[in-house]
C-alpha cells in the first residue's frame, strides 16, 4: 500500500487529482525497457493510467506503441522495469490471467465459432448462465451495429465487421481494463466516426480503464483523456488532447499532431534574440487572411502580421486551406468556410495576421527523441 502523502510528493503523480491519490493508479509502468537484440523497442518508459481513464498512445510507425501494449497484455515481458496493475506487479501473471479485454490486429476471432459463440465463449469460461449470456451478447452486438450477424462465421464478415465483433468480445466479460491496438483501422470514415462515439459511450458506461494505440490523430483527439506521443521507444510528450495540440513541447509533436507553421524567418525575435533550440510556431487556424489594405484593428498592438502571395487554395468541405508565400517561407492558413467570406485566388496579395499570444515556442530537439 502506498500512502497518499508519499504519492503527493512524487513528481510522477503531478496533475492527478486529490481524490485519485487515495488509490494506486490502475496501471503503472515503472522504467520499463524492452530490448530486441541490441535495440530498445521501448526505452525506460514510466507512466500511470488512472482508474477509468482513456489513454491513447500515438506515434509514428516503429515508435514502440504495440510493444508497450503487448507488455501490458503480458504477451511479452520487460527486459527491465516493472508493470503494476491496481498497485500489484503483474510480472508473474500470465496474459490469460490478466483481467483485460483485448482488441489486437493479430488477436483474431475464433474462426470455427459463429459470431454469437465467439462472444459467448469468454462468458462460459466464467460460468455465466445461458439466459444472461444471450442477453449480454444481443446487447453488445447491437451496440456495434451487428445485431443481425450473430449466426455468421468470422470468414463471412468484412474486416471492419470482424473488428467490431472483436471489440464486442473484448467487452463482453466487463473487464476493468481494455487494450486496443488500432481498433478502427479497417473501417471507412463514416463507420469509424460512428464507432468512435460508440467506444466513447461504452467507455463512459462501463467506466473501463482503456489504453488505445492508434496512428489516427483525429481519433486520439476525439477519444482520449490523455495522449502519449511516442518517439523512438520513449515518451516525447504526455498531455490532454487540448494541451498537446495547443502547447506542443517540441517541433516533433507540433508536426505529428496537426499542421504547424514555423515563423522563425517571418517574424523578428523579441529584443533581437531567440532562445537557442527554440522555434516560434502557430497553428493554421490561428492565422487570419485578408486583403492587404485591411483597416487597422483596435487590438493591433496585440497582433503580428506578414504580407504574402497566395500560392495555392485547397477546398476541403467545411474548411478552405491557403498556402501563402511569405518571403522564403510558405504559411498554411485554414479557414472555416462561410457564405459572407472573401475567397482569395492564387497570385493575389494578402495580409496575414495573428495574435502574439497564439504563437508558441517549441523545442527543435528533445532528449527523448534523439533517435
Ligand atoms: N519481435 C520483434 N523482434 C525484433 N524487433 C521487434 C519485434 N517487435 C518489434 N520490434 C521492433 O521494435 C520497434 C517498435 O515496434 P512496435 O511494433 O512497437 O512499433 P509500433 O509503434 O507499434 O509501429 P506501427 O505503428 O508500425 O504498428 C520497431 O523498430 C520494431 O521493428
Ligand atoms: Mg503497432
TrEMBL record:
GO terms for molecular function: ATP binding; ATP hydrolysis activity; transmembrane transporter activity. The keyword ATP-binding applies. Coiled coil: none annotated. InterPro entries: AAA+_ATPase, ABC_SmlMolc_Importer, ABC_transporter-like_ATP-bd, ABC_transporter-like_CS, Mo/tungstate-bd_C_term_dom, P-loop_NTPase, Transp-assoc_OB_typ2. GO terms for biological process: putrescine transport. Signal peptide: none annotated. This is Putative spermidine/putrescine transport system ATP-binding protein. It comes from Rhizobium mongolense USDA 1844. The lineage of its organism: Bacteria, Pseudomonadati, Pseudomonadota, Alphaproteobacteria, Hyphomicrobiales.
Amino acid at each position: 500500500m502506498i500512502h497518499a502523502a508519499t504519492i503527493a510528493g512524487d513528481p510522477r503523480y503531478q496533475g492527478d487529482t486529490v481524490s485519485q491519490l487515495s488509490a494506486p493508479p490502475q496501471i503503472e509502468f515503472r522504467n520499463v525497457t524492452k530490448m530486441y537484440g541490441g535495440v530498445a523497442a521501448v526505452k525506460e518508459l514510466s507512466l500511470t493510467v488512472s482508474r477509468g481513464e482513456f489513454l491513447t498512445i500515438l506515434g509514428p510507425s516503429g515508435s514502440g506503441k504495440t510493444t508497450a501494449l503487448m507488455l501490458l497484455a503480458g504477451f511479452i515481458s520487460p527486459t527491465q522495469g516493472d508493470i503494476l496493475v491496481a498497485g500489484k506487479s503483474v510480472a508473474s501473471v500470465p496474459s490469460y490471467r490478466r483481467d483485460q479485454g483485448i482488441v489486437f490486429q493479430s488477436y483474431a476471432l475464433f474462426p470455427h465459432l459463429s459470431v454469437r459463440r465467439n462472444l459467448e465463449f469468454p462468458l462460459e469460461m466464467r460460468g455465466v448462465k445461458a439466459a444472461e449470456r444471450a442477453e449480454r451478447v444481443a446487447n453488445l452486438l447491437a451496440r456495434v451495429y451487428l445485431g443481425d450477424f450473430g449466426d455468421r462465421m468470422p470468414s463471412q464478415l468484412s474486416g471492419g465487421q470482424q473488428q467490431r465483433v472483436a471489440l464486442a468480445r473484448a467487452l463482453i466479460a466487463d473487464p476493468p481494463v481494455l487494450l486496443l491496438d488500432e481498433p478502427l483501422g479497417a473501417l471507412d470514415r463514416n463507420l469509424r466516426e460512428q464507432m468512435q462515439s460508440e467506444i466513447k459511450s461504452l467507455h463512459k458506461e462501463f467506466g473501463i480503464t482503456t489504453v488505445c494505440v492508434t496512428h489516427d490523430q483525429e481519433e486520439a483527439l476525439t477519444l482520449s483523456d490523455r495522449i502519449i506521443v511516442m518517439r523512438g521507444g520513449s515518451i516525447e510528450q504526455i498531455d490532454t488532447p487540448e494541451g498537446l495540440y495547443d502547447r506542443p513541447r517540441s517541433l516533433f509533436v507540433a508536426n505529428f499532431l496537426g499542421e504547424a507553421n514555423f515563423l522563425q524567418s517571418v517574424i523578428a525575435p523579441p529584443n533581437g534574440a531567440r532562445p537557442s533550440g527554440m522555434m516560434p510556431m502557430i497553428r493554421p487556424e490561428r492565422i487570419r487572411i485578408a486583403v492587404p489594405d485591411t483597416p487597422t484593428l483596435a487590438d493591433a498592438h496585440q497582433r503580428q502580421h506578414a504580407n504574402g502571395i497566395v500560392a495555392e487554395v485547397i477546398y476541403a468541405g467545411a474548411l478552405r486551406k491557403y498556402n501563402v508565400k511569405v518571403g522564403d517561407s510558405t504559411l498554411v492558413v485554414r479557414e472555416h468556410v462561410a457564405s459572407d467570406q472573401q475567397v482569395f485566388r492564387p497570385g493575389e496579395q494578402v495580409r496575414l495576421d495573428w495574435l502574439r499570444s497564439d504563437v508558441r515556442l517549441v523545442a527543435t530537439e528533445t532528449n527523448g527523441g534523439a533517435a
